Each structure stands twice: as C-alpha cells, then as structure tokens.
Amino acid sequence: MSVFEHSEFDQHEQVAFCHDQASGLKAIIAVHNTNLGPSLGGCRMWPYASGEEALTDVLRLSKGMTYKAALAGLPQGGGKAVIIGDPRKDKSPELMEAMGKFVNTLGGKYITAEDSGISVTDLQKMAEFSDYISGTSGKFCFDGSPNDGNPAPGTAYGVFVGLKASVEYALNRDLKGVKVAIQGMGHVGYRLARHLHEQGAELFVADIFPEGPAKAAEEFGATVVTTDEILSLDVDVVAPCAMGAILTIDSVNSMKAKVVAGAANNQLATESVGELLREKGVLYAPDYVINAGGIIDIYHQQGDSTAERLRLHIEQIGQTLKDIYARSEAESLPTNLVANLMAEETFKKAAN
Ligand code: NAD
Predict the structure, then answer these.
(1) Domain definitions of the chain by residue range
(2) Does this chain's domain 3-65+76-127 share its CATH topology with 152-347?
(3) 150 Cα nearest atom in ligand 1
(4) What is the pLDDT of residue 350?
(5) pLDDT of the residue at 232
(6) Which of 113, 174, 219, 328 has the most neighbouring CB atoms within 10 Å?
(7) Rg (alpha carbons) of the chain, rounded to whole number
C-alpha cells in the first residue's frame, strides 16, 4: 500500500524508510508537521509483525506528537521513529549506529528521544553519529535536583499540576482530603502519589505487581486495592498511570469519580468515549496535554535553560487544561475534541 493512501496518513510532511543490510536495521521515520519547529518524538523498537504495522504506528504516533508539542507551548513539531525488531534479541551497537546515521540524514528536521525498547545507552550510541539525538543526559529536574535523563519526574509533576487544576475546576476545592485512585505504581504513578500525599490527598493504588503499591502504602498511607476495582472506586479522581485504552463504555459507565486525570497515553478506547465522559459529567484531562511534562523536560535539557524555567513551563499545563475545560463547557464539546481543535489552531496558524 502507498503511504499516501494509508488510513493514518494525514498530511505528513515526510516519511523516510531505511534498510541497512550490514546491521539488519529496518526503520521508519515519520515527520508529521514542522510548522512550529523541528519535529521531536521518541524512537520505538518493537517486534512489529509487518512493515505495514510499523508504518501505521509511526504515522499515528508522529501526528500525536504534533498535537502534544503544540499544546505544551513548545517551538517544536511532531515526529516519531520506529525500528522493526525485538529489543531483547535484535539490538546491537551496529544497529544503533545505523539508526543514528539514519536520523542524521534528515538534517535536523527530526530529533529523536527515548520510547519503548530504547534506552539512554542506545541514544548515546546514536548520538555518536548524529547531532539530532536528545535524552542522552539530563542536567536538572524541575525542582533543581539532578536529572539522569529520565523524563518521569517531569511527567509526574505535570500530571500533579494538571490533576490539581482539574480538581479546582470540577470540584472547586484544593487537594486536601480529595480521594484519588491511581492505576499503576510505576515511574510516574509512584511519583504522582508522593506529590498528592504531600498535599493531603487520600490515596488508593493498584498495580499488577505488589511492590509499588506496598511502597505507597508504607510511605503515603495509601490503600491497596485490586486492579479490577481501581477504576470504579467511590473516589473523586481516577488517575490512569498504567496502559492505554482503559476508558471504555463499560469502565466509564461504572465510574464514580468526577475527574479523570492521569499520565497514561491513549486513555480513550475510542474518541467517542470522550463524549460519554462529558454526558456523565466526568471531567477528562486529555492525556497528551496532562502528560506533556516529560517532553517539556526533554526540551529544556537541550540549550541553556534552568530548573526554574522548566518548572514554570510544566506548570502551564494547569492553565492549558482550564482553557480546554472552559471552551468545552462553552461549546458543549468533549475535552478531547477541544484539545485537538486548540492544537490544530496553534500549529496550522504557525504555517501562515
Ligand atoms: P511504568 O512501566 O514505569 O509503570 C506502569 C505501571 O503500570 C507498572 O508498574 C505496571 O506494572 C503497571 N500496570 C500495568 N498494567 C496494569 C494494570 N492492568 N493495572 C494496574 N497497573 C498496571 O510506566 P511509566 O513510565 O510510569 O508510565 C506510565 C504511563 O504513562 C504509560 O502509559 C506511559 O506511556 C505514560 N507516559 C509516561 C511518560 C514518562 O515520562 N514515563 C510520559 C508520558 C506518558
């Protein structure tokens, strides 16, 4: 199938394919839009069943990055790279060298970063062969503490700020005593729990592995519940911090929370679930808006920014969400659609 007829093709500026026989690299880079600046987005290594599957993923993900960067107030566009292969079996320094050279061929139109299957070490190898590799090291976290290149602290702080703004908007209160159910006690979920605990929130946590919840129970007095019940608890806020597609017709219908605000990517099983949330009076923080702290962090690690500027930039997530909520109410549109409209207005305007 031609790229131009592909169902996920949406005015992408450039789609580049690479095959390097010596290393076995098979990769695709998609640059969706560069109106706001060079495209930025992670490199994912995944054992795709076919080139078609990899193309679908890279077209969809690169477009998502354009929207995310636009609403995060970044002077950057959207792009993404995928490597076809199993990161546990097919990785080699030669493969990363070939990928670095491939990124370099785009001359800075695409800047890569970490995604599933790619580590900081892999990026460091790529960076030997290209100037357009970010996330190889970090200088500072938003709170001034050292940064090892992991974007999770920035993501978690952004989700915390966004959750707080959402509670203010929907419930007209601060976080003291607010009941929050966090699905997933991983890199982001655990850090979010700490921020919320510091503000006096009451926590409920679930994970498929026991270690994270046990730690949250001990350190933050969180109540550990099962993964089956976490989304339907009698709480004020649900914070999805595990995997995507968890907001389905069934899960939303059994939800008692009035706010959904969490880090997970692609939380809506289908876009129409956004309308169901609106009808039920549940305020949904669009995932790519509230979880942008990590990409904002990566942006500030390049160049000569400071921890203070990074923190202030992440904190803008709260106002962006409030703007989305106000427009959603004024125009009777679900928040996910309003976010898309606002992102499009931003990056399409930049073309003029
Ligand atoms: P992680 O892998 O560290 O944590 C995810 C946690 O969810 C794990 O502890 C896992 O055991 C748990 N989990 C998996 N399935 C579950 C289920 N059914 N019920 C409950 N728990 C389950 O990942 P992370 O870095 O914390 O990211 C969390 C989410 O946020 C992901 O969707 C990720 O794509 C998204 N995100 C992360 C970042 C970042 O900076 N790390 C940035 C943007 C978006």
Answers:
(1) 3-65+76-127, 152-347
(2) yes
(3) 40
(4) 84
(5) 98
(6) 113
(7) 20
Per-residue pLDDT at 150: 82
The catalytic residue among 63, 68, 80, 109 is: 80
Pocket test for ligand 1, best of 71, 134, 243 (most atoms within 8 A of CB): 243
What pLDDT is recorded for position 1? Answer: 65
Nearest CA to ligand 1 atom 30: 264
Residues of the chain scoring pLDDT < 70: 1, 352
Q: Is 186 in the pocket of ligand 1 (CB under 6 A)?
A: yes
Q: What stretch of H or E contains 195?
A: helix 187-198
Cα 162 to Cα 16, 200, 235, 259, distances in angstroms: 36, 16, 17, 11
> What confidence score (pLDDT) does residue 75 get?
95
Q: What is the pLDDT of residue 352?
A: 57
Residue with the two structure tokens 């990056």: 347
- For residue 183, the CA-to-ligand 1 centroid distance in Å is 9
Q: What is the pTM of this model?
A: 0.94
One DSSP character per residue, 227-258 reads: TTTGGGSS-SEEEE-S-S--B-HHHHHT---S
Q: Within the chain, how many helices (H) and strands (E) appear?
A: 12, 11
Candidate from 157, 224, 241, 266 with most ligand 1 atoms within 8 A of CB, to mutate: 241
Return the ligand 1 atom nearest residue 189 CA. 26
For residue 93, how far is its CA from the centre of ligand 1 (angstroms)? 27
Residue 150 CB–ligand 1 contact under 6 Å: no
- Ligand 1 within 6 A of 227 CB? yes
pLDDT tens-digit series, residues 220-264: 999 999 999 999 999 999 999 999 899 999 999 999 999 999 999
User: Is 80 one of the catalytic residues?
Assistant: yes
| CATH code assigned to 3-65+76-127 | 3.40.50.10860
* Ligand 1 near 35 CB (within 6 A): no
Beta strands at 237-240 and 179-183: parallel, antiparallel or unpaired:
parallel
Q: How far apart are CA 163 and CA 184, in angstroms?
A: 16
CATH class of 152-347: alpha beta
pLDDT computed for residue 115 by the predictor: 87
